[in-house]
Fold these 3 entries.
Entry 1:
Amino acid sequence: MSDTNQTNKALVLALWEALDGDDADARESAVAAAMAPGLRWFGHAPVGELHGADAFLAEAWEPLRVAFPELRRDTFIFIAGASNGRADGDVSRDGKHWVTGTGVLRGTFASDYLGIPATGAEVAMRYGEFCRVVDGRIDEIYLLIDVVDLMEQAGVHVLPPCRGRPGLYPPPRLDDGVLVDAQDQAVSDHSLDHLRRFLYDGLNVYDQEELSSMGMADWFHPDVQWYGPGGIGACLSLQEFEDNHQRPWLVAYPDRQVQDLTAIFAEGVYSAAPGWAGVKATHTGPYLDAAATGATIVFNGLDWWKREGEQYVENWVFVDMVHLFDQFGIDLFERMRSQVS
């Protein structure tokens, strides 16, 4: 497994280095070499789903490079592994190989992006990316940029002040999240098993009445550092997590259930999971400033966890908030346009 992980990490690192470079021809050549012809790319709303390397460059990456011409990647976590994302644990129906990274994309906000007004100042856009590798080529990518947080950096506030702490998305406290070297497979296997039990045997057993039914104190360290997206904010203890995120979330979506995720994998003490429609719920209570709609909704999200012993001490979390509010019938970009027009 470690040889496959190392080969796949080298492939993705080389692609990212070319994408971050200033040579447009080199970016095009690197994409053609690294990506499978039938690439499927899933991104943040309103970009959405794209097919093929040419579409990725033209509709996803080059608009970023135009808006942020000095764009450079600062990666906080970088791991690889084979997925076992199914709730039933049947790896024979999964077993795909993935590479993931998260951190920030830094650059001067030189021209508008997705209609978000340029500031002329440097911004740090939170990003998370998952790449599936098949036969030495990347054939599937999930990428989220924290659009709400970027809006806030541009002085536009489309959601109420977050309950958590705004603007926090740091590297791991021990700065040990970029796993360039191969890791102990036994440790990785334990991390994968631990995460699967947390997701399917912990989060999914909520009785819709008491937070204690999830047993979060068994899974999260009392001083867990939970870094949520723009609109939710960071929680720097289990108590903050329960008060500022978990309770409001479960009031709004008491029946939410983690589905078979796109992938679940681990390397060393780090684990990760992308989930496009990875959680399903009924919107039966208010959330932020959105009244309950009664609609069935799904969440597109990305997560990374760090384990110490049998508890998580850090968790980096993306939720596509634009996509979520679209399902409420609320267009966050229309809110933005009403403020900047």
Entry 2:
Amino acid sequence: MNQLTIAICFIVFLLLFTGVGISSATQKSNTTQDYLVASRNVNPWLMALSSFATAHSGFMFIGLIGWTYTSGISASWLMLGWFLGDYVTWFFVHNRLRQVSEDDDAETVGGFLAGKGQKSRAIAALSALITIVFLGTYAAGQLVAGSKALNAIFDWDYSVGIVLGAVVVVAYCFSGGIRASIWTDAVQSILMMISMAVLLVVAVMSCGGISQLWSQLQSIDPILVDPMPPNLKFGFTLFAISWFVAGVGVVGQPHIMIRAMSIDSVKHIGMARNIYAFCYVIF
């Protein structure tokens, strides 16, 4: 019965995401600008939630949680460094990107880099090639993350989860373009926040409370509850700096930056940044 309940929930949410993505097509215009940047009229709430889910979904649910499981609470320094670097980037890059991309009528990050009036096909072609190579690898990693979750829950072969995820993504992206991706990401963000809160409460209660959780972890390995363990790679300072730089590296992720280009107004970047930061800190 428990397995059946999980299967039903999985199917319901799969249909929800697919339905949200396909329904976004009702709001689309048959223009290239609408497909690529949603006519630059995305609500700041949707933009912020979408950026959050796009930047952190598979990484947080699979990568970060797995690493925290093995290393303990010192994993929090990773997120602190990454968050600070990411937040600084929002201040210095996103506003300018939104404004200049509109002024130059750029609809992709490659188009933005090529510039207006002096369009360099070489720059545009190189940025497109880099995007295909590295985002192709990134997309593969996201599909693997999802398939790992399905393997753990249903014992499915990895290939099944990968193919299923690819089919769903292709279906809603072809139907609604970037707007479909943003809408489904926003729903995903809300689901991420709720599910993680439920998981936290259930996990702590099953241990008998926070103090019991702490003592049980300490009995397994004292390093798990040590915020600055001696085995922290490269030492604390370099560890924190490296993840700060990783946060700044958001400027090299076109699937995130395109969302800044899609927001309805430069004036709303600050609001979107604060919503994004709130979700980040809570998660």
Entry 3:
Amino acid sequence: MHSGSFFLARCQRLVEDVEEAEQSVGELQSEPRGTIRLAAPMSFGHREVASRLPAFLARHPKLRVHLDLTDRFVDLVREKFDLAIRVSGRLVESSLVQRRLCPLALTVCAAPSYLDRRGTPRAPEELRDHECLSYGPTTTTWSFSRGRRIEVSGALTIDNGDALRRVALAGHGIVYLPTFLVADDLRAGRLVSILARDIDAGGGAFAVYPESRHLSPKVRALIDALVASFAAELPDRHHDEHRWRAPDGSEPDR
């Protein structure tokens, strides 16, 4: 970057920091106010976040929340989001401060029709011989316990969990999804959990914000409210959702 451009960018950042500091001082002297720009994955935001916001806003009538539901990986600084929610395995991003909202169980599953046709994988390595439905590029990596990373592939990739679930229900392949998306299908037998003993149990939903950005009272209030709301439901909905019977009828050994 040209030295003049770098100097200008730095000055703009300093001005923004001063404005944020002045706003925070005002907020500390009264109740939080203003607008919070929040980004969340589409499925998790629709199912788990949106319904929690009315109660939060009722407690903070001077706040507004702009919720952007997208499965795109947003750049919080460049796009000027105050906060994002990431659904992931063990989240490690050095440029972001993160706070865990809740654990999320994961499951590898498929429709009975697919397993009858192609057989049931008994080890993660066997997934290489199966049609795997996933996010991202045609070839992707699924993580399992004991640090195992298995490269899987399939003819169809979709950037939304609900859409992946629908394709799996139609018998077109194996998916690796958070159980909040497929809990009802697992209970009803429309999908069958496989490789339950090999799943990495470190997944969760995280609130993240840039390390370089001051955490304003309004954002802190929203994070605290989300943490408290999810904690009130544990362990019933999130932590124990992985306890579905394996294809042989046994419980996962966890």
